[in-house]
Amino acid sequence: MSKGRAAGWVLAVSSLFWPRLFILLFWIFDDQLFSDAFDSWVVPFLGLFLLPWTTLAYATMWGLSSDRVSGAEWVVVAIALLLDVWTYAGIRRLWSGS
After folding, report:
1. How far apart are CA 21 and CA 81, in angstroms?
2. Secondary structure class of 27 (helix, strand, coil)
3. Is 3 exposed, middle or buried, given 0-12, 13-18 or 19+ CB atoms closer than 10 A?
4. Is the pTM of this model over 0.85?
5. Cα 17 from Cα 24, distance rounded (Å)
6. I need a surface site. Which of 2, 7, 10, 27 has the fewest CB within 10 A?
7. Looking at residue 1, what is its pLDDT?
8. What average pLDDT does the structure give for the chain?
9. Average pLDDT value for residue range 11-28
10. How far is CA 92 from CA 44, 50, 98, in A?
């Protein structure tokens, strides 16, 4: 395995691990953030597994403003969505060996 490929795996695994850790920590120590941002526990639970960066960014942006996501905050959520897509695309590329 080349150094570049090993670095790619470290980045990919890190991108999978850190947002999930922060979501779990917020859920344990500050449940108010997720209960205010989402109507039920289903969306953040699914977000934990499917789109962790997007879920974390949305909840964070919700908590920063007056109980909504608006304006430039959507740019942060969109960047988080791109980061989720980039993570899964990178893992697929690394897995296939390309």
Report:
1. 17
2. helix
3. exposed
4. yes
5. 11
6. 2
7. 63
8. 88
9. 90
10. 24, 15, 9
**The token pair that represents 53 in the structure block:** 């960066």
Collapse the DSSP code of 26 into the 3-class scheme (helix H, G, I; strand E, B; otherwise coil) and give the result: helix
Is residue 8 classed exposed, middle or buried when 0-12, 13-18 and 19+ CB atoms within 10 A define those classes? middle
Could you tell me how many helices (H) and strands (E) the chain has, helices first? 5, 0
The sign of the torsion formed by the CA atoms of 50, 54, 55, 56 equals positive
Q: What's the one-letter identity of residue 24?
A: L
Give the residue-averaged pLDDT of 15-24. Answer: 92
CB 76 within 8 A of CB 57: yes
